[in-house]
Amino acid sequence: MEPEHPVIDEWILGLTGVARPRVCFVPTASGDADGYVQRFYTAFEAMDARPSHLSLFRRTGADLRELVLRQHVIYVGGGNTPNLLAVWRVHGLDVILREAYARGVLLAGISAGALCWFEGGVTDGFGGYAPLCDGLGLLRGSFCPHWDGEPERQEVFHRAIAQRVLPEGIAADDGAAVRFVDGAPAEVHRSRPGARALRITAGGVAPL
Fold first, then answer.
1. What Cα–Cα distance (Å) separates residue 86 from each residue in 90, 107, 152, 153, 156?
2. Quick check: is 51 in a domain?
3. Residue 17 is part of which domain span?
4. Region class of 182: left (phi > 0), else alpha (psi between -120 and 50), else beta
C-alpha cells in the first residue's frame, strides 16, 4: 500500500531469515490484475527478493502445491475477499495453503489478503460493508483492516461482534502489521507513527 515506503514489506522479508527469499504474490482478490502484479514485481525486485506470482484466472499447467511449498513467503493482495475465497476453494488452493502454514511458510497479505487467514471479518466485497463468516480460519477470531480510514467498516465490525455474528478479533490501521506466531499475536510493526493494532471485544477496544 506504500510503494515509496516499503517498511512493512522489508520487515516481512526479514522474518524469513534467508537471503533473497522466494516470495509469491497471489492476486486473486483483484482478478489477477496485470498492473497490480507488475507493481509487485517492481517493488520486490528492488528489495533483492525472488518474486513470482500465482494466477488462477489464467492458470497454467504448473503444480500449485509444488509452487506454493517452495516459497518462503506467500503474499496475498487486496481486493474482493469473498471472491478470493471462492476461487481458492474451487482450485484447492485453500488446502495447499493450510499445508504451507503447517510447514512454516510465512503467510502475509494486505486488506483482503490479511482478512482471509481469519475465521471472519468485515468485507466490502458484497457491495457494501458486511460480515464475512467463512474465512480460512488459520487464525482464530475475526479481523478488520483499514480501521483508521473507514468509520462505517468500524461500525459494522463492532455490531457484528456485539451480536455474535463474528467472534471477537483484531483491527489494524493502515500502516500497522500484526505478526502471529503459533496462532497468537506476537508483534506489531508500523510503517508510520501512531498506526494502531487493536483488540476488539464485545466489551470494548484495547491496544494490542
1. 6, 19, 25, 22, 22
2. yes
3. 7-117+131-140+173-192
4. left
Mention every residue, 6+ apart, whose C-beta is less than 8 A from residue 106.
12, 15, 16, 72, 73, 74
pTM assigned to the model: 0.96
Average pLDDT over residues 84-113: 98
Task: Give the residue numbers annotated as catalytic, written as ranges.
Answer: 111, 146
Bridging pattern class, strands 118-123 and 73-76: unpaired
Q: pLDDT of 160-198, one tens digit each?
A: 999 999 999 999 999 999 999 999 999 999 999 999 999
Burial of 121 (0-12, 13-18, 19+ CB in 10 A): buried
Distance, C-alpha 107 to centroid of its chain: 8
The x, y and z cell numbers of residue 82, run together, are 469473498
Residue 87's φ and ψ, nearest 5 degrees, are -65, -45
Residue 161 is assigned to a structural domain of this protein: no
Residue matched to cell numbers 457484528: 160
Cell of 19: 537471503
Task: Give how many domains the chain has, as a whole number.
Answer: 1
Does residue 49 sit within a domain? yes
CATH of the domain at 66: 3.40.50.880
Torsion of CA 196, 171, 136, 114, to 10 degrees: -40
